[in-house]
Amino acid sequence: MNKNTIRWLLLILLALVWGSSFILIKKALIAFEPLEVASLRISISALAFTPFFFRHRTRVSALDWRALVIVGLCGSGIPAFCYAMAQTQISSITTGILNSLTPLFTLLIGVWFFSVTSHWLKYIGVIIGLLGAIFLIYFNYTASLQIDMIYALLIVVGTICYAISGNVVKQYLNKIDSFTISVLSLSLLGLPALVILLRTDVLTKLSNHSEAWFSLGAVAILALFGTVLASIVYFRLVQITSALFASSVSYLIPMVAVILGFLDGEPVLAIQVAGMALIISGVYLTRR
To answer: How many CA atoms lie within 13 A of 6 on its CB side?
Structure first.
């Protein structure tokens, strides 16, 4: 299998995994508060990587740890809390549209702070992909957009964090394998997340709330797939392509929702096909 095929397969896999994250957060919020969902997600992810921590910590230098802290906070820690809090007040439509800002911030932060050179076609690709995502999300729902600016800003903060994380991995951790990056960056968050978790009412809710174990299952799936597996795939994709191309996965997430709906018997509108065409064109241009 050639490298180009591998890149696209990794991008599609990432879209499928992250495409389910919003619904899993929604199910987790049935029984738990946002702080509990985020701290559970990070604690479970860190716990999954704990057996590998001591073996992999010897594979990085002292300077690498600084970058790993940034990647841990920006790639997983801060966004986990931002998205969980935001989804208590804003619709999935708004979340999807705002999440599509990630490639734009990835491009701008890369150019402004990391001296990344970008061809003008990449700028056009980002704009085309963003338009396609907006069309696809907007016309895929009949509900009106309800925007609470404070909570919408939390999603924007999350996308900026993702953009910073992707650029840091590409610039400073490109020679470290993606599994090691995931193990170390997430393990660093484990103890702080556990401290936060122990100060919540999670244990009480597991005993008394009828939906608590269902929500815990949703968080566990979110952690193991949406964080653990996704982080390994994402960091690898950044390393073999670019932070910009990897971030374009946020354009594909609404495409996944439309395709799954079609397979389930839902009609697909012409405007949705046009939106998907724009997204594919935009993602292709970011690889130029």
So the answer is: 11
Three-state SS at 1: coil
CA angle 240, 125, 235 (to 5 degrees): 25
Domain that residue 281 falls in: 3-286
Give how many domains the chain has, as a whole number. 1
Provide the pLDDT confidence category of residue 112 given band limits of 50, 70 and 90: confident
**pLDDT at residue 98 in the model:** 76
Q: Which residue has the higher pLDDT, 191 or 1?
A: 191
Residue 30 CA from chain centroid, whole number: 21
SS3 content of the chain, % helix, strand, coil (to 5): 80, 0, 20
- The answer to whether 50 and 190 are in contact (CB under 8 A) is yes
Helix runs in the chain, H state only: 3-19, 21-28, 34-56, 62-72, 78-86, 92-99, 102-113, 120-139, 149-172, 178-198, 202-208, 212-221, 230-240, 243-247, 249-263, 270-286
pTM, two decimals, is 0.86
- Written as six digits, the tokens of 124 are 């056009």
